[in-house]
Amino acid sequence: MATLEVKGVNVSYGKMQVLWDVNLSITEGSIVALLGANGAGKSTLLNTITGLLKPTSGEIAFNGERIDNLSSDKIIEKGISYLPEGGRLYPDMTIKENLEMGAYHRKFWSSRKEGLDRMYKLFPILEERKKQLAKTMSGGERQMLAMGRALMSNPTLCLFDELSYGLSPVMAQAVFQVVKQLHSEGITVFLVEQNVHQTLEIADYAYVIENGRIVKEGEGHTLLEDDYIRQAYLGM
Ligand code: ATP
After folding, report:
1. Model's pTM, two decimal places?
2. How far, in Å, from the CA of 13 to the mean position of ligand 1?
């Protein structure tokens, strides 16, 4: 069953249309990727799924229920968590406080202790450093913290925008490893990435967006062998 269904979605900023008839489907328990260059419309799509932007037309359904008319608050409550590009941590707050901010919504605040325990198990380094300020961490550690914060609301679907951006290859690998672990725990993951090779290696299915339109889709390993993807995105 599809967890998330995006149908015929068009989105504009004022008079400028940036998403054109976007259709995509994310199956429960899968890792699905959205690939595309700068400015292709990836963040716009995530902002639309999470209710920060409203489509001018089209529908978005989560677990069979329309969500395109709901507020972001209500969408989080339903089990969708969003990690925006760059993580947007609070640099002068501790690691523990940053994690707690992920449970700030009234529905999750009372269970934040259980959430912290889960995150410390998933990212032991966060427990070791829980009293340290977020700004003292390395880029890779900050991204782990941002992922942990996104997971504090116990989501069933995680939207991750450019998780590996700016990370060393080793740290990018570590971050993708966490995605695989979440997948093995049954969490559905929608990855928006420019790191095409590593992403296609772990994605069950992927979509390619160019100038606001989905131009290609297929299983991750199939797209890795696709001539167009190899030339346009892998420089081969
Ligand atoms: P990047 O990885 O660089 O963020 P992206 O694929 O996420 O790229 P978007 O940020 O969704 O792309 O941008 C899609 C288009 O919409 C671009 O042409 C961008 O300039 C434009 N755009 C994005 N945000 C706004 C905004 N708030 N107002 C007007 N135009 C915007």
Report:
1. 0.92
2. 9
